[in-house]
Amino acid sequence: MAQINLKGMGVALITPFKADGSVDYIALGKLIDFQVKNGTDYLVVLGTTAETPTLSAEEKAKIQNLVIEKVNRRIPIVLGLGGNNTAEIVKRLETESFEGIDAILSVVPYYNKPSQEGIYQHYKAIARASKLPIVLYNVPGRTGVNMTAETTLRIAKEFKNVVAIKEASGNITQMDDIIKNKPRDFDVISGDDGITFPLITLGAVGVISVIGNAFPREFSRMVRLALAGDYNNALTIHHRFTELFELLFVDGNPAGVKSILHVMGYIDNQLRLPLVPTRITTFEKIRQVLRELNILC
Questions:
Q1: The domain that contains 173 carries what CATH number?
Q2: Does residue 292 belong to any structural domain of this protein?
Q3: Quick check: pTM over 0.85?
Q4: Residues 6 or more apart from 280 whose CB is under 8 A from it?
Q5: I need a surface site. Which of 52, 142, 167, 215 has the fewest CB within 10 A?
Q6: pLDDT tens track for 113-126
């Protein structure tokens, strides 16, 4: 099994849409180049931030191929591959080609609300089927169930190809428990931009970021400074974005970051139902913060 370096800032890549609702592949290609040239350490494609539940199988395949082609091995690619049907995920892992993909990110099963034993058995089946490194993804605010530190550590210790967890529980105590007791070669990655700095001080290796879609150079620098122990300068950058962290999610993700990218001229401000763009009041607050950050005139 190939190794993957998940230290630093990964970006959960958005999917740009045109005014007619179709995928804007030209804008996506430009965003990929923007990411690679501005310090992003790896890309996470077809995750939640990509509005993946609203994409067709054909669109997903085209996006995956475009990302692989545009990245051209310059940085690693992590593919979102999860769900609440374990057998289907296992079948995909056993039958599909993952050429050009360096790891998979697999979310805790949603809606079914499995027990901790059910979560363990789910990941056991995935670990046995996958030839690629696996990153667990715990986000109870979306899935309806929290994967406990005990379950995470059980999986991490038993399956060597499970190499990391994207932790978005918001529970610092739980994350610290995982960091304290994890195997040496298992990484904890922040799933929330706003707590990336404090989590790195506890021992996390970085973030899978939403705000990095718009500010890859600035936010990746914050992550690198924090990882290097330069907490004063890292904290300065962290505080620059404090207001945006909240505004990004007040109307749901990726509505916030898409509105920022729209203001910056990269994409149309389009989402697919059931998601809708940010409210005008939020949009104006975002514009004001961007002006204060000297990002807009």
A1: 3.20.20.70
A2: no
A3: yes
A4: none
A5: 142
A6: 999 999 999 999 99
